[in-house]
């Protein structure tokens, strides 16, 4: 293949960036397309939603990351389809970008299991705007409660419901409880923020199902110690501006957050290939799309099995391993070497935090919980941030909160009519 | 007056906060009402608009500032009117708040001199949302230019026009020029960002009219050295999505920023008292509203003369001095002492920066320009920020930019349809 071999990468998440990083020095031109101008460190997005970190601390302009790589062109654009026979991708603005090799790393969004009408009242957490929307609603609920004279309406304003008890749901519920019980009480005069109810609802039998029974039970005790009501085995049957139906019980709650399910981006549809129930493209064991040797699908929008038959989880390390694997395949093809064997996922461990002092970690043989796990979690996340500036900024924000107890990013931005439950600006 | 004397302060800007700070220990209850949950350090807002600082570095939750003052109640609400005979203020949600003493410190917004239709295409800079709107438009213009194949449209995308050459206009134009000429060139592959035009338009005969001719001329040379075209004596006669009419010359420019005029909040209207042409309430020499001894008006929404007959400028130090003065008057009245004499404004100096290396300072007898002035400007602004956390965060952001040349807050947030000139989300 010629030096001008053109790799088009759609999506600047963990998988896409790892791929572009690992193609450094390869005889290729790279075009990286994303509909956002920034890479987002999603594992800490819940901390923006809960006023711990600022948006710019966990997001980086993608083109800045590749300023030293003249062969990498970054385009801000939304991909609307793929013409696999003509080897082009179509952008929403009408342009077509031709490729020699295409890598789709377009990720996933939240899914409402056929109830998209719940989206305006129960926002999910995938983008910076989602995080500032949740942050605004949580802060506005306390503000409106301070102004509210009717006790029933005040109670509904002070009831926060998080739907879904995976790591994101647990982290959100824990941090909202920390705010209500520890950060805010001294600042309100008419309400006692410690009377706020934080309800974490899970349809399955226990929280954090990716962890062992013991770590899951520990996390539940810790959450309850922070003041979170944990409701397991209770499916949500309705969400509206007044509250949430949990089984056949209605909980009046003005602030709902959705952390219950994900739906892959339409990469499989673009290619006309088979997808699993969550919309993830069923790819071959070298991560190519069936019938499309020059098209790879990686990360949250791909469905891949591990050697033991279980699916590769939709987490950052898996996406990064897939990006690195595809870079090796592309290099091998360009050099005429045999491609590396099938993609093998190595699970490095699972981490989740509960509030500001505890975490659980499962490294397989080693399992940790409590303060030590929390420190390891924090150091690992600072390590994985991009660049010295962000590492120091996040470390400083955390240190400040640790020492002072004061959250630094408690801003209500974007206009929202006071007294309205649902934002009219977002979505 | 009883210990329960109730001071209602509307507006948590520089004047309102100084007043509440200086009432510490006085026998009063204080209610501070703002339609935002945060105090904003407006002098650095242009740095959010130009990707230098993050929103949370220059804004603080108002109620957090008074967590240690149990007699201070903070309310998030929009005031819609004043009933001076009934001594209440009306909130937009229908509630009425009664007062014994009222202080209106409601500030100003940008004014389009009867051309409000220009607002969507030429946003001003008064709020955090304004700053992120301008930031988004500036960054999107470069992104869209990178995608654009038509040369005329690309040139219009790479032309940035700042209207009004006071300190804010000069600071915006200088920082956009720094971005185009120094920060961004290495990151784009299809366009040369150094070819961008930055046009600063001023209807008056020279830029920065508050400074001496010599400092103003120096600032102009520095701006031109950064690549800014400075057009003086040229009024803007039309703004639209395609560009700006300057006198009878049309400049195709997809990004316009308005820094040309301000309009006071309607405090004078609420009280039914006289206002100047910019809508500022004409107050008595003790800053009370004529005929309303218990109502004070301070800051950008008040019109006060200095001893020499010129108006007190609409800048942060003036608002703070007025807040401090009113606190002294209220204390004197409560203690039955004679009130302090008429309000006297002490001008401490004027500062403006040009780009990232130069500034001008006029302390009256001492006048400075260049790098030394820039360092004094920076240290003074860090000193005036609220709290250790912000001082360290801003100092770190500036140090990082100084060392690396990389701006840290280059995020495009809020959804905007690519290819549309004007935001449909904002305003």
Describe the protein.
2 copies of one chain form a homodimer. The first copy, chain A, has helices at 14-22, 45-49, 62-65, 128-147, 151-157, 167-183, 213-225, 267-271, 316-334, 371-384, 388-404; strands spanning 5-10, 28-34, 38-40, 59-61, 72-76, 79-83, 88-91, 96-98, 101-104, 108-110, 159-163, 197-202, 228-232, 236-240, 243-246, 249-252, 255-258, 262-264, 281-282, 288-289, 292-297, 302-303, 350-354, 358-362, 367-370. By secondary structure, the first copy, chain A, is an alpha/beta fold. The first copy, chain A, has 2 domains: 5-35 and 77-110 and 262-334, 3-Layer(bba) Sandwich (FAD/NAD(P)-binding domain); 116-260 and 356-404, 3-Layer(bba) Sandwich (FAD/NAD(P)-binding domain). A 6-stranded mixed sheet of chain A has the order 5-2-1-9-21-20, covered by helices on one side. In chain A, strands 13-12-11-17 form a 4-stranded parallel sheet. In chain A, strands 6-7-8 form a 3-stranded antiparallel sheet. In chain A, a hairpin with a 4-residue loop joins strand 24 (358-362) and strand 25 (367-370). The radius of gyration of chain A is 22 Å and the shape is globular. At the A-B interface, strand 5, helix 4 and helix 11 of A face strand 5, helix 4 and helix 11 of B.
């Amino acid at each position: 293949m010629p030096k001008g071999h053109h790799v088009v990468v759609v999506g600047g998440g963990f998988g896409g960036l790892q791929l572009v990083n690992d193609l450094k020095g390869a005889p290729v031109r790279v075009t990286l397309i994303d509909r956002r101008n920034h890479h987002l460190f999603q594992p800490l997005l819940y901390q923006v939603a809960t006023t711990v970190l600022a948006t710019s601390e966990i997001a980086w302009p993608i083109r800045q990351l590749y300023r030293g790589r003249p062969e990498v062109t970054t385009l801000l654009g939304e991909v609307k389809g793929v013409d696999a026979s003509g080897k082009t991708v179509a952008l929403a603005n009408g342009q077509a970008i031709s490729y020699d090799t295409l890598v789709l790393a377009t990720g996933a969004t939240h899914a409402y299991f056929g109830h998209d009408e719940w989206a305006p009242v129960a926002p999910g957490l995938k983008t910076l705007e989602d995080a500032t929307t949740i942050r605004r609603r949580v802060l506005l609920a306390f503000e409106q409660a301070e102004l509210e004279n009717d006790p029933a309406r005040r109670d509904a304003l002070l009831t926060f419901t998080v739907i879904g008890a995976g790591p994101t749901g647990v982290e959100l519920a824990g941090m909202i409880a920390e705010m209500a019980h520890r950060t805010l009480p001294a600042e309100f005069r008419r309400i006692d923020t410690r009377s706020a109810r934080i309800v974490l609802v899970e349809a399955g039998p226990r929280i954090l199902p990716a962890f062992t029974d013991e770590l899951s039970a520990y996390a539940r005790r810790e959450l309850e110690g922070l003041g979170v009501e944990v409701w397991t085995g209770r499916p949500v049957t309705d969400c509206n501006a007044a509250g949430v139906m949990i089984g056949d019980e209605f909980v009046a709650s003005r602030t709902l957050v959705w952390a219950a399910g994900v739906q892959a981006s339409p990469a499989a549809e673009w290619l006309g290939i088979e997808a699993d129930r969550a919309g993830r493209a069923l790819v071959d064991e070298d991560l190519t799309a069936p019938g499309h040797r020059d098209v790879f699908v990686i990360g949250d929008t791909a469905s891949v099995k591990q050697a033991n038959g279980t699916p590769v989880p939709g987490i950052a390390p898996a996406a990064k391993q897939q990006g690195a694997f595809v870079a090796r395949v592309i290099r091998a093809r360009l050099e005429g070497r045999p491609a590396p064997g099938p993609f093998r996922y190595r699970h490095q461990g699972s981490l989740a935090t509960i509030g500001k002092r505890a975490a659980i970690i499962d490294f397989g043989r080693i399992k940790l919980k409590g303060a030590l796990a929390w420190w390891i979690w924090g150091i690992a996340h600072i390590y994985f941030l991009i660049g010295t500036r962000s590492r120091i900024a996040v470390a400083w924000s955390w240190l400040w909160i640790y020492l002072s107890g004061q959250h630094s990013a408690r801003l209500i931005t974007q206009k929202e009519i006071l007294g309205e439950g649902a934002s009219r600006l977002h979505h």
